[in-house]
């Protein structure tokens, strides 16, 4: 069954959940690895491989949801009985009680794997998410199965987005970018960090988001403090403001960073921002098919050095049903960027002498010859002035 995404910045988008899932790519990768089935547990993979999305998967991680996807035959989706599985495109839905005396979900999973005739087969389990206790029970009850970690296969399936995923993310990114812009544009020097952040949250919910995923906002010297949550501290003229903001739209995340300045910026602030903007542009130009995550990182860091700027330990990541998906633009990342990937490219660092941290983050679609900018609502050629 389909869900609809409503955004006031563009026409209604109708999304069939099955169109967000690349079944052909999953099965291709399963064949390459010789897997008879994969079993996903994380909210990301359950959402992706079943079409089902419910906030309970994040809020109540102790309740197990699972998708069993065999190479041959029909998949099975496991969901606890209080939730309506109407959004899933899987027809074989098994429901179980939550918080029962016996962990019926775990034992049902064991029974389903036996029922599918997977004894003696090679199965890719999402080991990086399954609990140690659940893994011990599964392994003990099905000792004849050749268990391997299937996390990479499921992650790699999500590398390249389907056309409908791109449509969803394009709309979601634009809604997020607009929400930040409007919050900055409507702010005044007498406002507080928190009130500006609250405006972003309010805007993005009105623009179609299901939840605010994170709202990192700070001004002045507090911009240097990593993932800072805005305080009821009045803005101060002559200082900069930065946000790192994202929301969730039908199970898909957004992640953007934008800069503002309270009052007229100094020449030094303008020059510093321009340098980071140049680094960002050089990084964006390097994000093209065939470039590895490590190569993009190296080129970005070289740009930082060339302009006499500090540097970051990571300058980008893919995004989708999780915020930081691979490939990551960081040291040691071997995976190449490919056409159809959606990436967040981010640059910035702290200017220690002045107690300021600059941060620019955009979202792009990797194309055959380069990239398409998805976060194009805000003009990032200069910092937004709050006056």
Give an overview in words.
Helix 4 packs parallel to helix 5 (132-141) and helix 7 runs antiparallel to helix 8 (193-206). The chain has helices at 23-33, 43-50, 56-59, 104-115, 132-141, 151-157, 163-186, 193-206, 267-286, 293-306, and strands spanning 2-5, 13-16, 37-40, 66-70, 76-80, 92-96, 122-125, 146-149, 211-219, 240-249, 252-253, 256-262, 316-318, 325-328, 342-351, 356-366, 371-373, 384-386. The N and C termini lie far apart (48 Å). It is 32% helix and 25% strand. It is α+β, with helices and mostly antiparallel strands and 387 residues long. Mean pLDDT is 91; it is low at 1-14. The protein has 2 domains: 23-157, Creatinase/prolidase N-terminal domain (Creatine Amidinohydrolase, Chain A, domain 1); 163-386, Creatine Amidinohydrolase.
SSE arrangement:
Layout: E1 2-5, E2 13-16, H1 23-33, E3 37-40, H2 43-50, H3 56-59, E4 66-70, E5 76-80, E6 92-96, H4 104-115, E7 122-125, H5 132-141, E8 146-149, H6 151-157, H7 163-186, H8 193-206, E9 211-219, E10 240-249, E11 252-253, E12 256-262, H9 267-286, H10 293-306, E13 316-318, E14 325-328, E15 342-351, E16 356-366, E17 371-373, E18 384-386
Parallel strand pairs: 3-7, 5-6, 7-8, 12-18
Antiparallel strand pairs: 1-2, 3-4, 4-5, 9-10, 10-11, 10-12, 13-14, 13-15, 15-16, 16-17
Helix pairs in contact: 1-6, 4-5, 7-8, 9-10
């Amino acid at each position: 069954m389909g869900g609809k995404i409503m955004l006031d910045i563009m026409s209604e988008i109708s999304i069939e959940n099955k169109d967000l899932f690349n079944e052909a790519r999953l099965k291709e990768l399963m064949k390459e690895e010789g897997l008879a089935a994969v079993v996903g547990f994380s909210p990301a993979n359950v959402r992706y491989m079943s079409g089902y999305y419910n906030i309970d998967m994040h809020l109540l991680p102790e309740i197990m949801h699972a998708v069993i996807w065999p190479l041959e035959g029909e998949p099975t989706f496991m969901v606890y009985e209080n939730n309506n599985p109407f959004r899933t495109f899987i027809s074989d839905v098994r429901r179980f009680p939550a918080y029962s005396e016996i962990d019926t979900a775990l034992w049902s999973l064991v029974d389903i794997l036996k029922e599918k005739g997977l004894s003696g087969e090679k199965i890719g389990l999402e080991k990086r998410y399954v609990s140690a206790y659940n893994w011990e029970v599964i392994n003990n009850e099905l000792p004849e199965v050749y268990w391997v970690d299937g996390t990479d296969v499921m992650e790699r399936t999500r590398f390249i987005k389907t056309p409908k995923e791109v449509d969803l993310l394009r709309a979601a990114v634009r809604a997020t970018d607009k929400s930040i812009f409007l919050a900055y544009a409507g702010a005044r020097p007498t406002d507080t960090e928190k009130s500006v952040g609250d405006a972003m949250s309010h805007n993005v919910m009105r623009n179609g988001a299901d939840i605010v995923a994170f709202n990192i906002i700070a001004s002045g010297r507090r911009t240097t403090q990593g993932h800072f949550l805005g305080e009821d501290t009045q803005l101060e003229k002559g200082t900069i403001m930065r946000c790192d903001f994202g929301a969730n739209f039908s199970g898909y995340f957004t992640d953007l960073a934008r800069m503002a300045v309270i009052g007229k910026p100094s020449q030094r602030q303008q020059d510093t921002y321009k340098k980071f903007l140049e680094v960002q542009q050089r990084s964006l130009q390097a994000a093209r098919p065939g470039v590895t995550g490590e190569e993009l990182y190296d080129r970005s860091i070289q740009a930082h050095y060339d302009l006499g700027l500090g540097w970051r330990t990571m300058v980008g990541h893919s995004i989708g049903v999780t915020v930081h998906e691979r490939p990551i633009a960081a040291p040691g990342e071997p995976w190449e960027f490919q056409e159809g990937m959606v990436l967040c490219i981010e640059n910035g660092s702290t200017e220690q002498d002045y107690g300021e941290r600059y941060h620019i983050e955009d979202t792009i679609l990797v194309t055959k010859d380069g990239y398409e900018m998805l976060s194009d609502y805000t003009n990032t050629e200069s910092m937004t002035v709050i006056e």
